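Let us practice reading a record.
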Amino acid sequence: MPKQHSALFGNDLHQPKGIGVETTAEFLIISQSLNIISGSSTSTGSFGHVLATTFKGDGSSLTGVTAEWDGTHSGNGTITGNFTVSGNISGSSTSTGSFGKVLGDGSSLTGISGFDYTAGSSPVITTNPSSLGATWINTTSGEIFVCYDISAGANEWLGTAGTEVVPPPAYLGSRGLFMGGYYTTSPYNLNTIDYITIATTGNATDFGDLSTARRSSAACSNQTRGLIAGGYGATSNISYVTIATAGNSTTFGSLSVSRLGLGACSDGTKGVFGGGTQQGGTAGSSNVIDYVTIATTGNAIDFGDLSVSRYRLGACSDGTKGVFGASGTTIDYITIATTGNATDFGDLTVSRDGPGACSDGTKGVWGGGYASSAGNNTIDYVTISSTGNATDFGDLTVARGYMAGCSGQ
């Protein structure tokens, strides 16, 4: 049986009767009030452990007190300060409660409940949740996603780290088409159309022929139709093809102003053509922007003006903004859904003419071009949703100019 000690203290608090315990099997019973005098105001030290099941009083005068927990607790409890766990937190399968915030990247979390989906990867657009606001946690990165737009096979998710999972812009598809061009011997202008499957590598395949041979044209699409406009040899003509079906082009309509060396982009509804020059360059550079509705046929309508007149441009879009760059360093943009003049965006890293341009719906990329009468291998890019100067992306394998570019899903 453990030893018990009764504690008696004399009236002289400076001379207590030294009562204590000798082993952990002993305990001390205090039948009177216990007053502890710490000494001077500068006294410091550790007074060991005070263990009890019940304290009387409100404890409002206690200072400098720390608590020790042996790691187990039954019943309810509240922790109002910081709580550090160096081991595991566990409970029964029916444990419930609110644990406030868990700080960290969450990359090692397992067995988490409360999310609709738990996986080691992020959601994709074809993840079809049962309801708006469905949650998904990527246990590899710790990022949590919420579905904010439900559409079967094309759902949209936003993550806590800013990651967006959204369908690709409507102008992106699986095929890339190349139309017209220049050859070194007569008849010089080409009517060739060939295509590639963007997801694979390999040589281009014949698609058909343009109704009019041309070079220095501009092209855009809405994922179903591909349009080509202007160019040397067909400065006002707009023609189209159905991208999924090989065959020759059909006349669509005419540009509002005849020109070549223009740039083109699309939001999947409108096809927009900017800049250029008249054949032979007799009238200098143009600032004209005009557009068509791709799903129909007809002549182009005035949209507005570029911030700077120029030609030999590369253009691309993110489905909202259309961005025109080159013929110098100038980059300007429009909001495709709303007609009006272009606004300055920033500058390319290298001044050049005739680069190819493309976009994945986020970045706009320009590659190659002619700088000081020589081919250039520069690739630079912008984030289309913001404005600012371009950043170096890398280099082409061969320096060259007067190029075309495309991208796919």
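A brief commentary: The chain is about 0% helix and 35% strand.
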